């Protein structure tokens, strides 16, 4: 086995060197020294190791080039360069790299990982058209109903705030996708979503798993020792397929029995029927798109809500404005949004302080490109290091501290730019960003108006502050921490009980 691996690595390196020698003399962007044959295999952290990526950024600057076993990787640490390439040159930077491991699991069928092309464009339109800023207001009632359940759950078992917030975001996207109201904790949709999240968490950072560099490993049969990827895919694929099929099957049943609540799936099923486009291909696209709504939409928004709880324990004092504008003991509604600039900044700061997807999703450049005299070869995987961009000291003052007022205009705040890059770039920018922001806003505004979030205390009554540490995989989450979630007064407790 080892001689085969070595020969394949050697041949691919020789081919790369040959191709490179024929490409003229333009230099690649800077990067650490490469090792013979392996290139930067050992220099590239395979999961998001924040320290290692930051060190590389400090040493080599806004754009870095790595060569891992003949594959070109470009890491962008500067927002300016990322906007220049991934936004302005989006026509050639909107592909996704081929991801053999995700292909084996079936997850490469989700919009998030689809290669650029016809299927991508059709799928993206299907989802994007329903999630425009304006259309997202149609989901406000769903969010408000789930907000009531969230607040009641927090009152009953505040120590389970992580579970309750996850349930909130999942229930919202499930209802949008399939029109099913999640009422009980053992709802099959909720159970499926949980199973799926666990599987996705195991798949690692797309583009950086070893199989992405040594795709022939996928041919190892599951019984060969060390063939973890084949074994995982054999277990995961049927589950993923079943979860994807289940949602649409339920909606088809609801539509047939006249019980369907209008949803992303029911509307599109009707459209397919009326236009007689109900082909397997169209139905499959619809199944994967509905599935993408919650595979991409729940875990991400949940991560931001967990970060919010951590930020409130460490940096309280976000409630004054709510009390002044809507009054103590009153529940905010979406109509209050324009009158609560500080609260809006809290939501932005949550997204900036700990970007949910620290390395973004990998883009792939579809043709050779040149940036400031440096060659970015066709096929390079291009990663935006969002965490480094959003903690750039030249843009954000005191970037590691949670400071919502940084976004308020001067003189009340620092007039710093909004953290738009947290949602990605160009034609692949997050289509769920408006939905995510409205979900975060209503949850954060409601929790702050009804609860205090405080540190736990030791026997002497002294506060024990959690460390702001994050577990980073494809998404980033605060490491487990405890806090006290207390109703702010008898009045707020009564308001929640009466919801
Ligand atoms: C705080 C919450 C969220 C954050 C920070 C976030 C962030 C991101 C980022 C960074 C990307 C990669 C963009 C790129 O490739 O440049 C992305 C893609 C995506 N997001 Fe979000 N997202 C959030 C919530 C949501 C929600 C609620 C949905 C859907 C309901 C959603 C659906 C998607 C999809 C489908 C993609 C793939 C788009 C494509 O490849 O064309 N996201 N998101």
From TrEMBL:
Its ancestry begins with: Eukaryota, Fungi, Dikarya, Basidiomycota, Agaricomycotina
- Provide the family line: Belongs to the cytochrome P450 family.
Q: Which UniProt keywords are given for this protein, alphabetically ordered?
A: Heme, Iron, Membrane, Metal-binding, Monooxygenase, Oxidoreductase, Transmembrane, Transmembrane helix
Q: Which domain of life is it from?
A: Eukaryota
Output the Gene3D superfamilies linked to this UniProt entry. Answer: Cytochrome P450
Q: Name one GO molecular function term.
A: oxidoreductase activity, acting on paired donors, with incorporation or reduction of molecular oxygen
Please report the name of this protein according to its UniProt entry: Cytochrome P450
Per the record, the pathway is: Secondary metabolite biosynthesis
Which organism does this record belong to? Meripilus lineatus
Q: InterPro entries from the entry?
A: Cyt_P450, Cyt_P450_CS, Cyt_P450_E_grp-I, Cyt_P450_sf, Cytochrome_P450_fung
The UniProt entry, under CDD domains, shows:
CYP64-like
Where, subcellularly, is it found?
A: Membrane
The GO cellular component terms are: membrane
Write one Pfam family the protein is assigned to. Answer: p450
Q: Which residues does the record give as heme binding sites?
A: 430
* Names of required cofactors: heme
């Amino acid at each position: 086995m080892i001689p085969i691996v070595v020969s394949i690595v050697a041949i691919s390196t020789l081919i790369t060197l040959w191709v490179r020698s024929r490409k003229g003399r333009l230099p690649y962007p800077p990067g650490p020294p490469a090792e013979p044959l392996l290139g930067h295999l050992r220099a590239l952290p395979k999961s998001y190791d924040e320290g290692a990526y930051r060190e590389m950024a400090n040493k080599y600057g806004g754009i870095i080039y790595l060569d891992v076993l003949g594959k070109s990787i470009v890491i962008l640490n500067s927002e300016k360069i990322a906007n220049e390439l991934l936004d302005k040159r989006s026509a050639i930077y909107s592909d996704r790299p081929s991801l053999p491991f995700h292909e084996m699991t079936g997850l490469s069928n989700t919009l998030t990982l689809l290669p650029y092309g016809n299927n991508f464009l059709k799928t993206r339109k299907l989802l994007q058209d329903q999630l425009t800023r304006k259309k997202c207001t149609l989901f406000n009632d769903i969010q408000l109903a789930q907000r009531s359940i969230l607040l009641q759950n927090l009152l009953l078992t505040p120590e389970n705030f992580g579970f309750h917030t996850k349930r909130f975001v999942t229930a919202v996207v499930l209802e949008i996708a399939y029109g099913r109201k999640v009422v009980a904790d053992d709802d099959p949709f909720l159970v499926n979503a949980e199973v799926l999240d666990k599987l996705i968490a195991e798949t690692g950072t797309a583009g950086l798993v070893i199989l992405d560099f040594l795709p022939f490993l996928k041919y190892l049969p599951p019984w060969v020792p060390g063939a973890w990827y084949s074994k995982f895919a054999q277990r995961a694929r049927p589950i993923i397929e079943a979860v994807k099929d289940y949602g649409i099957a339920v909606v088809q049943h609801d539509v047939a029995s006249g019980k369907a609540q209008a949803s992303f799936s029911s509307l599109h099923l009707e459209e397919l029927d009326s236009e007689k486009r109900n082909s397997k291909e169209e139905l499959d696209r619809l199944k994967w798109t509905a599935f993408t709504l919650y595979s991409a939409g729940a875990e991400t928004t949940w991560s931001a809500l967990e970060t919010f709880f951590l930020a409130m324990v460490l940096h309280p004092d976000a409630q004054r404005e709510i009390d002044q504008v809507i009054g103590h003991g009153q529940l905010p509604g979406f109509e209050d949004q324009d009158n609560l600039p500080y609260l809006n900044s809290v939501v932005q700061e949550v997204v900036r302080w700990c970007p949910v997807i620290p390395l973004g999703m990998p883009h792939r450049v579809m043709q050779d490109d040149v940036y400031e005299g440096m060659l970015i070869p066709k096929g390079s995987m291009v990663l935006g290091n969002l965490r480094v961009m959003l903690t750039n000291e030249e843009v954000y003052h005191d970037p590691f501290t949670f400071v919502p007022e940084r976004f308020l205009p001067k003189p009340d705040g620092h007039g710093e730019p909004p953290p738009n890059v947290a949602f990605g770039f160009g034609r692949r920018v997050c289509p769920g960003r408006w939905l995510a922001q409205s979900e975060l806003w209503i949850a954060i505004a409601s929790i702050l108006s009804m609860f205090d979030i405080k540190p736990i205390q030791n026997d002497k009554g002294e506060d024990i502050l959690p460390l702001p540490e994050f577990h980073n995989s494809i998404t980033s989450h605060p490491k487990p921490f405890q806090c006290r979630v207390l109703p702010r007064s008898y009045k707020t407790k009564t308001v929640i009980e009466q919801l």
